[in-house]
Amino acid sequence: MYPSTKMADDYNRLKKCLLWYIVSQFRPCIDLHQGKVKQIVGGSLNDKGATENFISEHNAEHYANMYQEHGLVGGHVIALGKGNQEEALSALRAYPNGLQFGGGVNCSNAESYLKAGASHVIVTSYLFENGEFSWDRLDKIKRETGTDRLVLDLSCRRTADGWYIATDRWQTITSTQVNQENLIELANHCDEFLIHAADVEGLQAGIDEDLVQLLGQGCPVAVTYAGGARSLSDLKRVHELSNGLVDLTIGSALDIFGGKGVTLDECILWNQSQK
Predict the structure, then answer these.
(1) pLDDT tens for each residue of 11-43
(2) Contact 153/102 with Cβ under 8 angstroms?
(3) What's the rounded Cα separation, in Å, for the pair 10 and 17?
(4) What residues make up the domain containing 15?
(5) Close Cβ partners of 242 (under 8 Å, ≥ 6 residues apart)
(6) I need a surface site. Which of 20, 70, 76, 238 has the fewest CB within 10 A?
(7) d(C-alpha 167, C-alpha 156), whole Å
(8) Residue 227: beta bridge partners?
């Protein structure tokens, strides 16, 4: 992948003009595992299961209704493995065009999720063949969704020489690096990025500040970061590091998911107070 130098320069000039009013926002989530709403430790997910931080007594529709009631937009429903289809579809139907959907999305089923109510579909693993990024597959799914309803999930793991996209429930590290050049190139083909920092996902031990800063410097499209958030101070920190250009999903630390670090009401107030 190679960057467009002119596009990067134009973007950076525009970004400087807009920074005075752009503010990072809280974005909600509904993570599904084995047919239930859960919060898990991202790096633990495999064929046998995962380390669970929280299992909800409520279904996915409950959370979708809650988010709609409070006017929260841009959230995502993620199906982690099999057995989540019914719950995912119920959430999409409950909040039409209010939630994005990811989990096993490919060119054959993407349109069906959009028709079911997803505002966007989120895709990762489908775009890789034998660990290599496939431009052909990206073109195929774009024909089904258009760029305006496609989110590229660039969730990654940190290595000695940077971050690399991880697929297959974050267990397979690909050869595609998350860097400014690739972010600029891929931004031409989607509406948004979603990026889980898989190494800190679910640990509530703090965000990956270096990654957030990189995303703030190199993303010409909207981007949501997830991983490690533990309190409202992390949302403020994401805003500072990214100049307001990166939004944050908070999961395990949130009170509605059994967390004690921050309440949903505090996140809603943050979003409202920044408008």
Answers:
(1) 444 544 444 458 999 999 999 999 999 998 777
(2) yes
(3) 11
(4) 5-273
(5) 24, 212, 213, 215, 216
(6) 20
(7) 8
(8) none
- Per 3-state DSSP, what percentage of the chain is helix, strand, and coil (rounded to 5)? 40, 25, 35
Structure tokens at 26: 């809280």
96-145 residue pLDDT tens: 999 999 999 999 999 999 999 999 999 999 999 988 999 999 999 999 99
Bridge partners of residue 122, in order along the sequence: 102, 151
CA dist., res. 44 & res. 201, Å (int):
10
User: Given the structure tokens 């989110």, which residue do they identify?
Assistant: 151
Q: Which residues are registered as beta bridge partners of 178?
A: 163
Q: How many domains does the chain have?
A: 1
Q: How far, in Å, CA of 219 to CA of 97, rounded?
A: 24
Residues contacting residue 235 through CB under 8 Å, at least 6 positions apart: 24, 26, 229, 248, 250, 262, 267, 270
What are 261's two structure tokens? 């670090």
Query: Which residue, chain included where needed, has tokens 């069906």?
Result: 112
Quick check: 6 pLDDT over 70?
Answer: no
Q: Supply the CATH number for residue 73's domain.
A: 3.20.20.70
pTM of the entire predicted model: 0.91
